[in-house]
Write a structure and sequence with these properties.
Elements (H helix, E strand, L loop, with lengths): L25 E2 L2 E4 L7 E8 L18 E9 L2 E8 L3 H9 L4 E2 L4 E2 L15 E5 L2 E5 L6 E3 L6 E4 L14 E2 L6 E6 L8 E7 L5 E8 L10 E2 L3 E6 L2 E3 L1 H4 L5 E3 L5 E7 L8 E5 L3 E10 L5 E8 L20 E9 L6 E6 L7 E6 L11 E7 L9 E6 L5 E5 L5 E2 L3 E4 L9 E9 L4 E8 L9 E4 L9 E6 L3
Antiparallel strand pairs: 1-5, 2-34, 3-4, 3-35, 4-5, 6-7, 8-9, 9-10, 10-11, 12-13, 13-14, 14-15, 16-17, 17-20, 18-19, 20-21, 22-23, 23-24, 24-25, 26-27, 27-28, 28-29, 30-32, 31-32, 32-33, 33-34
The chain binds fe (ii) ion.
Fe (ii) ion (FE2) binds next to loops.
Length: about 475
């Protein structure tokens, strides 16, 4: 089946579809403004970009495409773009065959395909840890990449200490330790999970096995200075439905659970809070308040987008809304105290990709940034927004009705700049012209003139997450 025939497939509509090849060091024209003096580094994005048309399109999901890294290097007032696929075992086998060979959620080999030791598609997030760059996909070990040219190095299991590793680990901004977890670490639909701490020196400080009440899909978690908060929504792995191509099912009739444990003591003493069913893809941050309670700011859905319920139906985006919600957890009481409230009247029909200035990870944050959409059943987000958690005020900037924003990244103005003094960098897909731009805004003035707008040589597919690797003073 050709890409043209697949254009209406839900995984390839609009700007979700892939680009066909790799470009190398294309200089980007400045459309407006100028690159700030001293802003030197590489801005990266990653997302699914299937190399070949999936062999069984009915089993394909947007989440399953081969990881592609897009990098814009800022150097001396100029910007250069390159993109590279992550050379996973699947990518290499398909490259050799010249066609797609592995299908569906389990990447099962189609007839005649060589059996490979799967190491994922490395398509979800990028992190820097201990001076190394990794591409992450939650069911697999991190994949090391070269930051200088985006070449693939190798999967890194840390001496078999790490298997499935979350795409959203949290780095302590003071110690440099990296906190992570893996779920279903004893195989698909298993309740075994692991809690990881990777030291700033690059070694594994701890890898603790713990057991979950049910085998949920857990995409993100929260780490404060003293605690880990682990949201378990009833989006549940099921071996039976997986045989029919539906590995996760939303069970809105069941409760959600939120696990809480001391981050130094580990998960052996995890305690669970029961709450009405909710779904969380991504979080802003958590911190320990002076009174001992844990404050967690998250984006909460009443049910998850992109996943089916028990009838097998995946709801349209017009049926789902998300909101910024603050959980306040009291770990000193028995049972654990729990309150939840909406932080602000939701400014968008749906919102996603919450971020903060990551120098505040686990510490008290005041400002969060996110993207949203106000006008119904469209793919992607066209509004960029900033929320002040103290006042509840929201500032937003809306782009064209069909335009699509990537997740934004916060870049500090300088390493020692005050919290939230910096830029928001994001890619904007201009649907009318089928092309993409890189925008840099002052993070405190979303509606001001952009600091810089750069033109990309072609559209940049929607993708998931990104990373700023700065060398700025
Ligand atoms: Fe994510």
């Amino acid at each position: 089946m050709s890409w043209i025939e697949l254009a209406e497939h839900p995984a390839f509509r609009g700007n979700l579809g892939p680009v066909p090849d790799e470009l190398t060091d294309v200089e980007l024209p400045v459309i407006s403004g100028a690159l700030p003096v001293g802003l030197e580094g590489i801005l990266m994005r990653i997302g699914p970009n299937p190399r070949f048309a999936p062999p069984l399109p009915a089993q394909h999901h947007w989440f399953l495409g081969d990881g592609m890294v897009h990098g814009v290097t800022l150097s001396n007032g100029r910007a250069f773009y390159r993109n590279r696929w992550v050379r996973t075992a699947k990518w290499r086998a398909e490259d050799e065959a010249g066609r797609g060979l592995y299908a569906g959620w389990g990447y099962r080999p189609i007839e005649g395909a060589p059996k490979i030791r799967l190491d994922g598609t490395a398509n979800t997030n990028l992190i820097e840890h201990a001076g190394r760059l990794f591409a992450l996909q939650e069911s697999f070990a991190p994949f090391e990449m070269s930051a200088s040219d985006l070449a693939t190095l190798a999967p890194e299991t840390f001496g078999d200490g790490v298997s499935a590793f979350t795409a959203h680990p949290k780095a302590d901004p003071v110690t440099g330790d990296l906190y992570g977890y893996g779920v279903q670490t004893a195989g698909f639909a298993s309740t075994q999970a692991r809690y990881y701490v990777l030291g700033a020196d690059g070694g594994v400080k701890r890898s603790d096995v713990f057991d979950l009440p049910f085998p949920a899909y857990v995409h993100d978690f929260l780490v404060s200075e003293r605690h880990v908060v682990f949201p378990l929504s009833p989006l549940i792995a099921d071996r039976e439905t997986a045989q029919k191509g539906q590995p996760y099912t939303w069970r809105g009739d069941r409760s959600a659970l939120i696990g809480v444990f001391d981050r130094e003591a580990g998960p052996a003493d995890i305690r669970w809070i029961e709450a009405p069913a909710f779904y969380v893809f991504h979080v802003f941050n958590a911190y320990d308040a002076a009174d001992g309670r844990i404050v967690c700011d998250v984006v909460e859905y009443s049910r998850p987008p992109l996943f089916p319920d028990e009838t097998g139906r995946v709801p349209g985006t017009d049926e789902i809304s998300s909101a910024i919600v603050r959980w306040t957890i009291d770990p000193t009481s028995t049972p654990v105290g729990f309150e939840r409230r909406h932080v602000c009247a939701s400014p968008a029909f749906s919102l996603e990709f919450p971020i903060i200035d990551e120098r505040a990870t686990g510490r008290r944050h005041r400002i969060g940034y996110f993207v949203g959409r106000e006008d119904g059943d469209k793919i992607g987000f066209n509004t960029l927004a900033r929320v002040d958690f103290e006042s509840g005020d929201v500032q937003s900037r809306r782009y064209g009705p069909e335009d699509m924003l990537s997740e934004a990244l916060f870049i500090p103005r300088r390493k020692d700049a005050p919290l939230d003094d910096g830029y928001l960098a994001f890619f904007l897909y201009r649907a009318d012209e089928d092309r993409s731009e890189l925008h840099l805004l002052d993070a405190a003035d979303l509606n001001g003139e952009p600091v810089t707008v750069l033109g990309l040589p072609r559209r940049l597919p929607q993708g998931f997450h990104g990373l700023w690797l700065g060398v700025a003073a």
